[in-house]
Amino acid sequence: MDSSIKQAQKQGERYAVKATLVTELGLALLFFTLLLLVTHSVQAFWDIITYLGAVNVAVFMAASLLFAYLVGRNAGVKILVKKKRYAWVGLVSGLKVVFFSTLVCVATTLLVQAAMGPLELGWLVHFIMKPFAWLALLCLVPVALAGIWYGYTLRKSTERP
Questions:
Q1: Transmembrane ranges (predicted)?
Q2: Using CA of residue 129, residue 24, residue 26, residue 71, what is the dihedral sign?
Q3: Cα within 13 Å of Cα(80), Cβ side
């Protein structure tokens, strides 16, 4: 493998993981601040984390970092070596990371529920359709912006002296 491709992969990985961490922490902080302003209590944030399940949140975060690493390798090559459009590659890469992370989280939740006993009626809606509906509603714009920002910073990293 060419050294420029390896270098682009490493740079893509590094920038993707950074962008994912910044986005996750930023969204969590914004969400926490919004709940604090509306409810004047920290308890609402913890209630939502409890409702979602701390394990699900941890699985999603771990999966998103893993997929950022994997997708970032490919995006680094596309942006830095093949000179593809950074905004489009960044946008698609960000959406891939969130989609696959949600898929892993949904599969984990479904397996845990199935292991605890028979699934309730409407499991398809509860465990698969709802998470993706919430994902589309709440995450599409922030992830798109973070993906474009990722592509831009990755492309700009090669233009520095």
A1: 21-42, 48-71, 86-112, 132-152
A2: negative
A3: 25
Spatial distance between the Cα atoms of 53 and 46, rounded to a whole number of angstroms: 10
Contact 77, 5 (CB under 8 A): yes
**Residue-wise pLDDT tens digits, 66-108:** 999 999 999 999 998 888 899 999 999 999 999 999 999 989 9
Alpha-carbon gap, residue 152 to 135, rounded angstroms: 24
Residue 137 predicted with pLDDT over 90? no
pLDDT tens-digit map of 7-39: 989 999 998 999 889 888 888 888 889 888 988
- CB 140 within 8 Å of CB 91: no
Q: Token pair for residue 17?
A: 């993981």
Q: Is the pLDDT of residue 153 over 80?
A: yes
Length of the chain: 161
Helix 54-76 vs helix 43-52: crossing angle, to nearest 10: 80
Element spanning 2, H or E: none
Range 29-64 burial, b when 16+ CB lie within 10 A, else e: eeebeebeeeeeeeeebeeeeeeeeeebeebbbebb
Does this model's pTM top 0.70? My answer is: yes
